[in-house]
Amino acid sequence: MEINEALPEYQRYTYEDYCSWDDDKRWELIDGFPYAMSAPNRKHQEISGNIFSLLHNFLKGNPCKVYAAPFDVRLNADTYDDTVVQPDLLVVCDKSKLNNKGCTGAPDMVIEILSPSTAMLDRFLKFNQYLRAGIKEYWIVDPDSRTVSVYILKNGEYVAHAYGNGEPIPVHVLKGCTIDMQEVFEE
Hints:
Blueprint: H1 15-20, E1 26-30, E2 33-37, H2 42-58, E3 65-68, E4 72-74, E5 84-85, E6 89-92, E7 98-99, E8 102-104, E9 109-113, H3 119-133, E10 137-142, E11 147-154, E12 157-163, E13 168-170, E14 178-180, H4 181-184
């Protein structure tokens, strides 16, 4: 089945529906509603690659693994199974959450890199999904301002930390890991 951007607002979908859609287009499914994803731009891809490389190198020999989009994350597979997101980057430390199609349940860490078409989704809708799912650490990377907003889960709420260009960012879910902002925004 192929779906288009003009879907009825009242129509809700599940992961089973999502799996039947045309693979030529990327979609996310949030609370049963589909969101079309556009291709990332060059700057977005460079930042994603830089962060992936830093995390991948740190995680060598570690049971935690880093993955890059497209990689399905089914946040509520054990209940409604109507939310499938594709974060730009994610870290999973519990191998039992992984299968050949992606991650079932909450990753330990999610990183979203803002673009004009996804900023509102990343800052609000996905922010609340990640909080509700219990993701321990959520980063929002803003390429334009060269800043990173880090949200750490504490007592069911996110505690925010902001980092500017040049500041090292500690990765709370990976003891001993610090990301150098200079390397994140290096072109």
